[in-house]
Design goal:
The chain is built from 12 helices and 20 strands. By secondary structure, the protein is α/β, with parallel strands linked by helices. The strands form 4 sheets. Strands 1, 2, 13, 14, 17, 18, 19 and 20 form an 8-stranded mixed beta sheet that branches. It has an 8-stranded mixed beta sheet with strand order 4-3-12-6-9-10-11-5. Helix 2 packs across helix 11 and helix 9 crosses helix 11. The chain starts with a helix and ends with a helix. The relative contact order is 0.16.
Length: 495
């Protein structure tokens, strides 16, 4: 009997030591996650040296090499044939000279608009030097099936067209309209004889969009010699005022009648854009793996990802992308280091990914799911981290379709960070979307009120909430840890 009790005591002591060791490792991992430490990576990724991390650019390559080296030093193994890189085919556009927009009168410049606050180029603007009058053409759409054509009565040959960037809310659900991005509108303008296009946000929306850097253009033919810019509300109204109208009146009239209203604008503009377009180019995802320690579960995987790219540089300005998404990239790198160096032995394996070309249309994450390094059916879940450095609290998307994952995060938040809101949404979104589309459960960490500086030149490290960045990363770490510890079967996670 004494021997039995001695064995029980020994077993209890061993289990307690094992538990203490595990708790100590988790505590060590959490200590490795430091807001100030992550900010060093944010500072580097958003520095002018990297020129806004346009996918496939030299700046992006520098960021990718830095991330791969960071993962290597942290002890993470390559995920693909002894390399940390997964090449991703994209199309590519590079600005190589000045960007100019001026008002012209009798052949002379009478006003120089300011690059940044007054206007920016679309990331896939074509090149050109153009002096031409301006014509307002509503939403820039031609849909004969819907009985609507903004160019029906407009003469735009050899002119610059001004159109609303967004599509009309009354046309939602009409086949094709929801997918009409700026490349469609540029091609449509060129088809009708225009030489360039100006986009402006619809003024009657709650918060009309400022001119932003964006490379989300859509698919289809790229006009290499067709300049594209987005202008401010003030600039557009300045152009249209001589007609006795303003943007808000024009939108209200079109929306109420559901008929196009196009007008000629008296002002003449000079546009200069210098770009080089490549239809076939490559960027890269960065992948690393932490193998699981359990014989049965090590062949199941959790993917933790964030996009590394941003919208680049044009002329004399660049878009730092500190929150979007240097913050998420820094969080993934910090989590990878914490898992790899804290002594934690996870049962499931973890694949850490920094995706390319999210800004261009989720190209990197889609390529990953179409060319996975492991069988998709072995991926039990995907955690996406995007824009987690600015704002006031933590949000996690995916709760409406994968409540188990969301509840894991919610429980860890109640025990630790206490900053997570109850707001959630269906699975997918951003780089989680490609995984969700393949039937993989997703959880998407973001911060609330995070988009103050989205795609603006003001998205700098100084605008970040370092404490929020640290707490969001710790919450994502603890959530991931609970999943890879094997506490849930794959079948249960997917319910």
């Amino acid at each position: 009997m004494k021997k039995k009790y001695i064995l029980i005591i020994i077993l209890y002591v061993v289990l307690m030591r094992a538990s203490a060791q595990t708790n100590a490792n988790v505590d060590r991992g959490l200590q490795y996650i430091s807001g100030s430490g992550m900010m060093k990576n944010v500072d580097f990724f958003s520095s002018e040296k990297l020129e806004g991390r346009f996918p496939g650019s030299k700046g992006y390559e520098t960021a990718a090499n830095y991330a791969a080296e960071y993962l290597k030093i942290s002890g993470l193994k390559p995920c693909l044939n002894n390399t940390y890189f997964q090449p991703v085919p994209i199309d590519y556009n590079e600005f190589i000279g000045p960007v100019i927009l001026q008002k012209i009168f009798h052949g002379k410049s009478v006003k120089q608009f300011v690059h940044g606050p007054d206007f920016v180029c679309r990331g896939f603007s074509g090149k050109g030097r153009i002096i031409a009058p301006v014509v307002f053409c509503g939403y820039g759409m031609t849909f004969p099936e819907f009985g609507y054509d903004d160019y029906e009565t407009a003469d735009v040959k050899d002119k610059i067209v001004l159109v609303f960037k967004q599509n009309p809310t009354w046309a939602k659900g009409v086949e094709g309209i929801d997918m009409m991005l700026t490349r469609y509108k540029a091609n449509n303008a060129a088809k009708h004889g225009a030489r360039a296009i100006l986009f402006v946000s619809t003024p009657n929306m709650a918060n009309p969009q400022k001119p932003i850097g964006s490379i989300m253009d859509g698919t289809g033919y790229q006009q290499p010699d067709f300049p594209q810019m987005q202008v401010s509300q003030e600039l557009a109204n300045e152009l249209i005022v001589k007609s006795g109208k303003n943007l808000s009146e024009m939108q209200s009239r079109i929306d109420s009648l559901k008929k196009p209203v196009s007008i000629e604008i008296c002002d003449t503009l000079y546009m200069e854009v210098n770009t080089v377009y490549e239809k076939e180019h490559f960027s890269k995802n960065i992948l690393a793996i932490l193998p699981g320690a359990d014989e049965k579960l090590k062949d199941e995987y959790l993917v933790i990802g964030a996009h590394l790219d941003h919208v680049g540089k044009q002329g004399d300005i660049f878009f730092p992308g500190a929150n979007d998404n240097a913050s998420g990239s820094a969080a993934v790198l910090e989590m990878a280091r914490a898992f790899a160096t804290s002594g934690i032995k996870t049962k499931r394996s973890i694949i850490f990914v920094l995706f390319t070309s999210e800004e261009q249309g989720l190209n990197g994450s889609r390529f990953f799911t179409e060319n996975p390094p492991v069988p998709l059916e072995k991926i039990v879940a995907m955690i996406n981290i995007d824009c987690v450095g600015h704002g006031d609290s933590i949000q996690a998307g995916g709760g409406n379709t994968t409540p188990l994952l969301w509840n894991v995060a919610r429980r860890q938040d109640s025990l630790n960070t206490r900053m997570m809101t109850t707001k959630t949404w269906p699975g997918g979104g951003a780089d989680a979307q490609a995984f969700f589309a393949k039937g993989i459960p997703t959880l998407y960490f973001a911060t609330k009120n995070s988009y103050t500086h989205l795609h603006l030149t003001t998205d700098t490290p100084e605008t970040l909430n370092i404490d929020l960045l640290e707490k969001t990363t710790k919450l994502a770490f603890l959530t991931a840890l609970e999943i890879v510890e094997g506490n849930y079967t794959k079948e249960l996670i997917r319910k």
